[in-house]
Design a protein that fits this description.
This protein has 2 domains: 7-205 and 257-474, MFS general substrate transporter like domains (Growth Hormone, Chain: A, Up-down Bundle); 206-256. It has helices spanning 12-47, 51-79, 81-99, 105-119, 123-133, 137-168, 178-192, 206-229, 234-255, 270-300, 305-311, 313-333, 336-356, 362-388, 396-424, 432-460, 463-474. With 482 residues, it is mainly alpha-helical. Residues 1-10, 427-434 and 478-482 have low confidence and may be disordered. The longest helix has 36 residues, at 12-47.
Length: 482
């Protein structure tokens, strides 16, 4: 439990303020991703970037974010969650300023990595703060539902605000919006969020951290660069080997540590493992969709950045409405209904787009966007609640960071795989039938993600899964359960 304040006795008003501040952090990080997606075509033209360059502008951010989330969660448990949260706000805001003045693609990618370093200190720590503030299971489910619903707000605001800024001022202005939000969040966090830390501290794990970074970086490099260099090239082959070797070494090393960076004992819980797989799959679909759809609307259909943002409103509205509703549904019925309905909705959207081919009327576009938003809105809060159920509150930073890491890994893979599929057919931004042909394969990938989540949800959220969660919790008998 927390050592500095018993947040279970916090007044409801104080809890609401803490939740609002934590929601602001997910708004910052998610808004940045959706805004940048709308700005990608303008960045490509201004900085003369290829599809691979556009992929790196997105994936450099998510790569660093995914690599450092576990470290940030463990560090917050050890040195103080509010302190790390505030550090993250400062670094993220500074990185945003630097991105706005980047003179070239390489600089933009480097500054995006600085942004991501700050972002890695926000989301998992915010979830940990929420879990230590809302200690009642049903109350926490509703809080996590509200937190997840902010993702819908970011998707609703991001494309529209980003499109208006890109059309009116230029793509560099999309990074300015983070600055006032970051400053306000810092001031509020300093005043209202109580400091808390875990009763038992986890030692740093530098070897595990290096292995995580090596695994993810080499894997994404191979996927993104393969269309241009060829899968049979020595560099791509070496990257694949390095990725596999790093993963094997990571698993063997972490299993032998008393306090590992990646707590593999959590995966003995079928719900936790299922939630991790679901997070990777669902956010791979989201990342791939945003990357694919932005290029389609602006480069194939010729829409302005602002109009392209308006097209995403059905998706954003669905996520905004059904994210919080999913929190209430999980609190009353458990995670299975949200996960099953969400996966079917996502799979249905992928199938709908894949079968259209080159015929994409607006009505069906909007229906597909709504189904994607519905699926992700239902699944997001269910993922978090499923993963954290039964986990020790004393290690809440690590548990929530693992789930957040899976989300970012999934989003990185989605952008990398979909971009690789598109780039296989051409070395520059594709138009017309060539783009539609490559996009068709990408939609089948998104359909497959939905089917996988459906199977995992049915398998891991029943009585067998609950039994494995109880056995896993028994391994942390000295810790207070969630």
């Amino acid at each position: 439990m927390s050592t500095s304040l018993d947040t279970a006795t916090a007044a409801p008003v104080r809890k609401g303020v803490v939740l609002s501040i934590c929601c602001m952090s997910i708004l910052l990080v998610s808004l940045d991703i959706t805004i940048l997606n709308v700005a990608l075509p303008s960045i490509q033209r201004d900085l003369h970037a290829s599809i691979a360059g556009a992929q790196w502008a997105i994936d450099a951010y998510t790569l660093v974010l995914a690599s450092l989330l576990l470290l940030a969660g463990a560090t917050a448990d050890r040195v103080g969650r509010r302190r790390i949260f505030q550090y993250g706000l400062v670094v993220f805001t500074l990185g945003s300023l630097l991105c706005s003045v980047a003179p070239g693609l390489g600089w933009l990618i480097a500054f995006r990595m600085i942004q991501a370093t700050g972002g890695s200190m926000l989301n998992p720590v915010a979830l940990s703060i929420i879990s230590n503030t809302f200690t009642d299971a049903k109350e926490r489910a509703r809080a996590v539902g509200a937190w997840s619903g902010v993702v819908g707000i970011s998707i609703a605001c991001g494309p529209i605000i980003g499109g208006a800024l890109v059309d009116g001022v230029g793509w560099r202005s999309v990074f300015w919006i983070n600055v006032p939000l970051g400053v306000v969040a810092f001031v509020l966090a300093r005043r209202y969020i109580p400091e808390s830390r875990a009763a038992t501290f986890r030692r740093p794990d530098p070897v595990g951290q290096v292995l995580v970074i090596t695994f993810l970086a080499s894997l994404l490099f191979a996927i993104i660069e393969a269309p241009a260099r060829g899968w049979t090239s020595g560099l791509i082959g070496s990257s694949v080997l390095v990725s596999v070797a790093s993963l094997v070494a990571l698993l063997f090393y972490e299993l032998r540590r008393t306090q590992p960076l990646l707590e593999l004992r959590f995966f003995r819980s079928a719900p936790f493992s299922g939630a991790s797989i679901t997070a990777v799959s669902a956010f791979a679909a989201l990342g791939g969709f945003l990357f694919l759809n932005t290029l389609y609307l602006q480069d194939v259909r010729g829409l302005s950045a602002f109009r392209a943002g308006l097209f995403l409103l059905p998706m954003a509205g669905a996520m905004f409405v059904f994210g919080p509703l999913s929190g209430y549904l999980v609190a009353r019925r458990g995670p299975r209904p949200s996960l099953v309905l969400g996966s079917l909705s996502l799979a249905g959207a992928g199938l709908l787009f894949a079968l259209w081919g080159q015929r994409l009327p607006d009505s069906r576009l909007f229906l597909g966007y709504f189904l994607i938003g519905l699926g992700l809105g239902l699944m997001n809060s269910a993922i978090t609640n499923t993963a954290l159920s039964g986990m020790p509150r004393a290690q809440s930073g690590v548990a929530s960071a693992t789930t957040s890491t899976c989300r970012q890994v999934g989003q990185s893979l989605g952008v990398a795989i979909v971009g690789s599929v598109l780039a296989t057919g051409a070395r520059r931004v594709m138009v017309g039938a060539a783009f539609t042909s490559g996009a068709s394969h990408s939609w089948w990938i998104i359909f497959g993600c939905g089917v996988l989540v459906f199977v995992v949800a049915l398998t891991t959220t029943g009585s067998w899964g609950a039994a494995t969660a109880r056995r896993t919790a028994a391994h942390f008998s000295s810790a207070e359960p969630w």
